[in-house]
Design goal:
By secondary structure, the chain is of the alpha/beta class. It folds into four domains: 115 residues, Response regulator (Rossmann fold), CATH 3.40.50.2300; 171 residues, P-loop containing nucleotide triphosphate hydrolases (Rossmann fold), CATH 3.40.50.300; 78 residues, Helicase, Ruva Protein, domain 3 (Orthogonal Bundle), CATH 1.10.8; 56 residues, Arc Repressor Mutant, subunit A (Orthogonal Bundle), CATH 1.10.10. The protein is 45% helix and 14% strand. It is built from 19 helices and 16 strands. Strands 2-1-3-6-7 form a five-stranded parallel beta sheet, sandwiched between helices. A five-stranded parallel beta sheet has the order 9-10-13-8-14. Strand 1, helix 1 and strand 2 form a beta-alpha-beta unit. Helix 13 crosses helix 15, helix 17 crosses helix 18 and helix 18 packs across helix 19. The termini are far apart. 33% of the residues are buried.
Length: 438
């Protein structure tokens, strides 16, 4: 880190000195400026790897500096120092392009984490061959890939929205893998799958004896993600009491395990997602507006499969390859031309997840590993728009009847019934729960 150079901008000499000492001990070179004018001069004549700036300066504010650096030095990360509790200003800075923020009085541990993350050299994979990728060459996918690459360089909270099955968790993983936290944990959690009474313990952990059944200390999801990324999927499902606690954790960058006397600092990047419209949820009183502004610093939309239908051939090829590997097939299944045309004309309300289910079911029916239009059996899924509500109810009813019939034929052997229906056991269990079949 001896070659790394950090610019510190603050009109309080004591703050500059504290940060200089901390960074020098970490092996960084430092330069200090007390005004924006001084900072502009240093930026012109020296190369920096990070800029740390206070928000209130004698000749301007930190937002101006963030915007100036974004325009003139786009590869230089800038972090802002805000007054304690002034989250509105911190969020404004993040929206303007700041890498992250730290509050006064400056916590040395948090400052070290921020500086390490901001100056970490992230290795760009050859031809962007990261572990997690989006399959497709459509303009929608290319645009999304560029947005992910840009967001990966920041620590700002991102709200990912899109229809169910469109790949929101995949997008979150890509942001994590391409960023400075890629060596640490990516912790995904489905907020709708945790019982309300266990949520606080699951998120923040608990100490032994804090409640009946707490026989030992337990680490929560925030601690598990410390140094990495916490992905809160279906965040709209959080009950109000947890929204309040989550808001505090995001604002303070600290959590209090159930039964603990003190808060514990955590270094976590928050990514969240929902298929619901949070603005509508706020209007209906189901989601806190203040939490929405904290998690929705940057908004990212994932396109539905309908908007990238030209990616269908590549997607089907990839899914069939995966199914072949799972089933130990000697050759990769294919679709005939009619089957591919049928798929292209389908509306895919369940997006890629629905495509996976359709192909898995069709493969079970196909002969010689060639999937036909009959194997897809899409006709019963085609729904006229005017009859959408009625047909959805009918389809649910038909699906329930088909599952019950299969279970009865197999004497309620779920594995055998799943095979008969062309589903995996996991998919059948999901449908049993969804349709209320006990």
């Amino acid at each position: 880190m001896a070659n790394k150079h950090v610019l510190i901008i603050d009109d309080e000499p004591d703050i500059c000195e504290l940060i200089e000492i901390t960074l020098t001990r970490m092996g960084f070179q430092t330069s200090s400026a007390y005004t924006i004018k001084n900072a502009y001069s240093l930026l012109k004549h020296k190369k920096f790897d990070l800029c740390l700036t206070d928000m209130h300066l004698p000749d301007g504010n930190g937002i101006e500096l963030v915007e100036h650096i974004q325009k003139n030095y786009p590869d230089l990360p800038i972090a802002v120092i805000t007054a304690h509790g002034n989250m509105e200003l911190a969020i404004k800075a993040l929206k303007a392009g700041a890498f992250d923020f730290v509050s006064k009085p400056v916590d040395i541990h948090m400052l070290r984490n921020l500086v390490s993350a901001a100056t970490k050299s992230t290795t760009i994979a050859p031809n962007n061959t990261y572990k997690t990728q989006i399959t497709g060459q459509s303009s929608a996918v290319k645009q999304l890939t560029k947005q992910i690459e840009k967001l990966a360089k920041s620590q700002a909270p991102v709200f990912i929205h899109g229809e169910s099955g469109s790949g929101k968790e995949r997008v979150a993983r890509m942001i994590h893998e391409q960023g400075s936290r890629s060596d640490a944990a990516f912790v995904p959690v489905n907020c709708g799958a945790i019982p309300a009474e266990l949520m606080e313990s699951e998120f923040f952990g608990h100490i032994k004896g804090s409640f009946t059944g707490a026989s030992s200390d337990k680490q929560g999801l925030f601690q598990a993600a410390d140094g990495g990324t916490l992905f809160l999927d279906e965040i709209a499902e959080l009950p109000m009491h947890m929204q309040v606690k989550l808001l505090r954790a995001v604002q303070e960058k600290a959590i209090r395990p159930v039964g603990a006397p003190h808060e514990i600092p955590v270094d976590v990047r928050i990514l969240s997602a929902s298929h619901k419209d949070l603005a509508t949820q706020i209007k209906n009183g189901h989601f806190r507006e203040d939490l929405y502004y904290r998690i929705n610093v940057i908004d990212l939309s994932v396109p539905s499969l309908r908007k990238r239908i030209e990616d269908l051939p590549l997607l089907t090829e990839q899914i069939l390859q995966s199914l072949a590997n799972k089933s130990n097939l000697k050759s990769i299944p294919t679709l005939n031309k009619t089957a591919l045309l049928e798929l292209k004309s389908h509306s895919f309300p369940g997006n890629i997840r629905e495509l996976e289910n359709i192909l898995e079911r069709a493969l079970a029916m196909a002969e010689n590993n060639i999937i036909t239009a009959d194997d897809l059996n899409l006709k019963h899924l085609q729904t006229p728009v005017a009859e959408e509500t009625t047909t959805t109810i009918d389809l649910a009813s038909q699906e329930k009847n088909a599952i019950i019939q299969a279970l009865e034929k197999t004497r309620w052997n779920k594995t055998a019934a799943a095979k008969q229906l062309g589903l995996s056991l996991r998919q059948l269990r999901y449908r049993l729960e969804k349709l209320g079949i006990d």
